[in-house]
Amino acid sequence: MSSNPLRPYKGNTPEIPASVYVDGSSVLIGAITLGEDASIWPLVAARGDVNNITIGARTNIQDGTVLHVSRKTIENPQGHPLIIGEDVTIGHKAMLHGCRVGNRVLVGMGVIILDGAVIEDDVIIGAGSLVPPGKHLESGYLYLGSPIKKARPLSDKERAFLPTSADNYVRLKNEYLAEL
Fold first, then answer.
1. Euclidean distance between CA atoms 158 and 160, whole angstroms
2. Domains of the chain, residue spans
3. Could you give the C-alpha distances from 47 to 82, 112, 144, in angstroms and in order?
4. Labelling 51: which of 8, 100, 128, 156 has CA 20 to 30 A away?
5. Could you name the CATH architecture of 6-179?
6. Handedness of CA 8, 14, 15, 18 (dihedral sign)
């Protein structure tokens, strides 16, 4: 295993601000850009090889998550990049492939989100859910199931928790950075 989790691919190297924590057991390859105060936890695999990955400020990608993209084709000239907004929590062992995730979203453990899916701001996706290709999740709701279905509107308490979850991981990554 390489001692450096950041690997170039075809002239693209991950762009990582000094305020970001990337665990040494993770692998980030190619065209990946992280926002300030983001965190990448153990065993994350992110491949920005055939398209780009963008991860917003204060977003945390938890242990064992896989992030990937779809290449550009004649049928789909833009392909499917992976765009993750700000203040997002991606739970352990999630898989995000060529989708768009808004701001203040909680993606539960083991969730799979497929190509072309769009998750608006202020959404919670329950653990183990499957978001099919091209599915659009509307802001302000809890979604559950495989395939995913709208369960109910988020409570005020749940909405307030979304940025709190991101803040908790910013504090934790600061503790980890202080140990280096």
1. 5
2. 6-179
3. 10, 16, 27
4. 128
5. 3 Solenoid (2.160)
6. negative
| Tokens found for residue 177 | 């950075």
171 exposure class (CB count in 10 Å sphere: 0-12, 13-18, 19+)? exposed
The secondary structure of 14-58, three-state, reads: CECCCCCEECCCCEEEEEEEECCCCEECCCCEEEEEEEEEEECCC
- SS3 state at 6: strand
| Residue pLDDT, tens place only, 86-125 | 999 999 999 999 999 999 999 999 999 999 999 999 999 9
Q: Are 150 and 168 in contact (CB under 8 A)?
A: no
Q: Residue 84: CB partners within 8 Å, gap ≥ 6?
A: 53, 54, 55, 56, 59, 61, 90, 96, 101
Phi and psi torsions of 165, nearest 5°: -60, -45
If you compute the radius of gyration of the chain from its CA atoms, what whole number of angstroms results?
15
Rounded to two decimals, the pTM is 0.96
